[in-house]
Each structure stands twice: as C-alpha cells, then as structure tokens.
C-alpha cells in the first residue's frame, strides 16, 4: 500500500513528517513499513507532528543488524532532527527499539506506546523459516500476523516474499530476529519512569496477550488495553479503535502537563 505522503530525505535519513504539534514518532517492525501506520498518520497529523522514520533493516552491515544497531540509528535521527518531548510508539520489533532507546536515553521522550512489542517474548517465524521460493508458506506466515487473514493483502505477502527471496536480506531478518530474542529486557523494564500505554490484540499469536500483561506488571506507570478480534498489528487491523485509545492517552499527557 503506497502512502499519499511525501518521504523526506535529510542526510542519510528517510522519513515521513506530517502535521504540527508534539512529535509522535512511529517505529515499524521487522516486516513492517511506513504504510503500516497510515491510519495513525491520517488521524494524528491534525494534532501532532507525526514522524515515521524508515528503519534501515537491510542497509546496516550484518554485524550491526541488531536491535542495538537500529536503536543507535534512531538516536542519531532524533538528534539530527532536533525532536524533543516525543511520544514514541513502536510495533513489534519497533517497540523493542523504542524500549532500548527509552532505557538508554529517556531525556527527549515524554511517553511510550507499545503494541505487540518484542522485548520479553515472541513466537518467531519458527525454525523452518524462511523457506525461500515457497509463496504459500510465506502467505500463511504473513496471515498469522492478523486475526483476520484477509488483512494480509497480496501486496503485503508479495513484499515479505520478496524480502525472503534475497539471501542477504534473509540473513539480516534472521540476525534481527535472533537479536530480539537474545535482547530480553525483563530485568530492566522497572527502570522506565515514563507514562506508558500498552495496546494489545487479544488474538495476537506472535506476542500473545500474556506478554502485554507482563509488560504491564514490569513497567511501573503503564496502562494496558486489549482489543478483541485483533492480532499482532492493531494499528493496521482495527485503526479506529486503536486511535481512540491512543488519543485518550495523549490527551491525558497534555492534561497532566498543564496541571
């Protein structure tokens, strides 16, 4: 799905930046893309400066194709662009990158929003992944992301299929997936002092509901919302419900700041 928004370039960074107001940075996951956030951009560009950096999942050398490598890239991007008072939202691997960033350099972040985030536990693509050239297999795995398999459009399946059919990209996917599993943040989450919103699909099979509950238990100032009939990418599958929960949370941050 192509977005009607211009992808800007500033130095080595590519990103979408729409609207005015407090920065809302959106971080996509491993097979994610900027288009995953169409619903959020359309809604929040009227109240916030919505920023979607294109994470260099396949551009870093293999050694730095890790959660830590992506976090370093994110930090450089934020410093380069001069964003402050950021509401940082991450889905899946993007949530993991956001968590590492907040644990290392929380100064510029105002609140944290996680949806289907890795960092504690996730069901990967399984040991048999990736089967190159097996379109049916890739289609089934992509459908697993959602409660309603029809959400996995042919365009989305084609994107994933293309990635796993390039050997170097496949190696980088495996490197990132392994890095996410190894980089377990369970012991550090209590250090997060920011207001945190957790939005989870009740039918998420990749980071199941118990993962959301565990994040809620470990992050001190966190609130957890479940959405029924929804899988691993709520902002794509049920954008309206997702946006209502997010808007209430962001509103609350403004009210708290004003008092």
Summarize the structure.
This protein has helices at 38-44, 67-81, 93-104, 135-143, 154-164, 167-182, 209-218, 234-237, 239-258, and strands at residues 8-10, 13-18, 23-27, 49-53, 86-91, 109-115, 196-201, 222-227. It is an alpha/beta fold.
Plain-language structure description:
With 259 residues, this protein is an alpha/beta fold. It is built from 9 helices and 8 strands. The chain has helices at residues 38-44, 67-81, 93-104, 135-143, 154-164, 167-182, 209-218, 234-237, 239-258, and strands at 8-10, 13-18, 23-27, 49-53, 86-91, 109-115, 196-201, 222-227. An 8-stranded mixed beta sheet has the order 1-2-4-3-5-6-7-8, with helices on both faces. It is globular, with a radius of gyration of 17 Å. 42% of the residues are buried.
């Amino acid at each position: 799905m192509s977005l009607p928004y211009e992808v800007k370039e500033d130095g080595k960074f590519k990103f979408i930046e729409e609207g005015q107001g407090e920065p809302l940075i959106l971080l996509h996951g491993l097979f994610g893309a900027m288009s995953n956030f169409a619903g959020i951009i359309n809604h929040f560009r009227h109240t916030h400066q919505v920023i979607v950096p294109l994470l260099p999942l396949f551009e870093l050398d293999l050694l730095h194709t890790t959660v830590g490598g992506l976090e370093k890239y994110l930090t450089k991007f934020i410093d380069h662009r001069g964003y402050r008072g950021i509401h940082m939202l991450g889905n899946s691997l993007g949530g993991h990158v956001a968590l590492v960033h907040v644990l290392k350099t929380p100064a510029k972040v105002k609140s944290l929003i996680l949806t289907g985030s890795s960092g504690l536990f996730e069901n990967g693509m399984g040991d048999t992944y990736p089967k190159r050239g097996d379109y049916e297999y890739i289609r089934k795995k992509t459908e697993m992301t959602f409660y309603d398999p029809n959400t996995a459009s042919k365009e989305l399946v084609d994107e994933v299929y293309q990635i796993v059919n390039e050997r170097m990209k496949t190696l980088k996917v495996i490197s990132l997936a392994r890095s996410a599993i190894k980089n377990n943040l369970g012991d550090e989450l209590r250090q997060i002092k920011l207001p945190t919103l957790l939005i989870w699909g009740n039918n998420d099979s990749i980071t199941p509901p118990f993962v959301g509950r565990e994040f809620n238990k470990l992050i001190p100032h966190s609130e957890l919302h479940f959405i029924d009939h929804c899988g691993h990418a709520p902002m794509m599958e049920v954008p309206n419900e997702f946006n209502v929960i997010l808007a209430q949370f962001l509103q609350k941050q403004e009210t708290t700041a004003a008092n």
